[in-house]
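for the writeup, i need someone to sanity check this before i put it in the appendix. the sequnce is what the collaborator sent (i think, or maybe the updated version? ugh). structure was predicted straight from it, no edits. if anything looks off just tell me and ill rerun, i have time this weekend
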Amino acid sequence: MKSVAQLPLVLGLTTLAAASVSAQNVKWQIDAGHSTASIFLAQSGDPDPGLNIAVAMAAGTMNLDSADPSKLSLQLNIIPADQDQMLLNPNGTLRAGTYAALSRYTVMSFQTKSGVRDQSGKLQLTGDVTVNYIEREAPSDWNVGYSGPTVINPVSKSATRKVTFTFDKSASDIAYGQKVGWMEITGLGRIPLEDSPALRDWLWSSVWPMLVEDRSCYMPNYSVSMREYHGTVCTGHLVETKPPKEVPYSSVSGLDYSGPRFETPQKINEVRILLDLKMREPR
């Protein structure tokens, strides 16, 4: 009878233990509609951020162990703006066998392999980033035998490199984010280009649409007069690329002025990815 009386207690402890384990390891969703990855082409060691060629969408998930907030695992996908319906699943993973509605574009995927805090307390997540460049240019040569548009088979090229993202987020900040169920985290990663110069060409050649958050479009009422028709009206918040610094114009006469000139890195040998991620705990 003693063992029978203890049975409910044992079952209760087992249930609590299982709930504790599941609560410690929670998968957070990155809000793709409000998370960005700014891509820069820069010179290694230069304090200037470089050329901001794109602001892309960021999506994916973050596994966070509440028992040890420094143990953070990030699964991240970076895609061109306005292409999420074609390229992303609802959970932020990449769709298989689908392509963006762009002639040339780049997609990046990052998966954490290790996470530590440096001496200053910053969180460092190291893993592999895979860069996929997809191109499907239509043939430009026309002849009398033209019979309409042709199906273009996409050409894909890829490269995988090791990268470390550094996040200025303390353990107490992460613990507070767990408490309120919401967190914003920013981080910077660098990819050297010495052994992979093609990455620079892929990123530079890609089409990067402008990123607009909270876009809302509607068709105005033209029932009175179609003369006022000008298409769909859209509103939203435009996330612009950072403009380069303009070189001061120093000519006295002004006769040789040919327009504004901007500073560019003397040697582009590094890709910098600046992340701004908004995440929520699943309800």
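Helices lie at 2-24, 84-87, 171-180, 198-205. Residues 25-139+150-209+267-280 form a domain with the Lipocalin fold (CATH 2.40.128).
thx in advance!!
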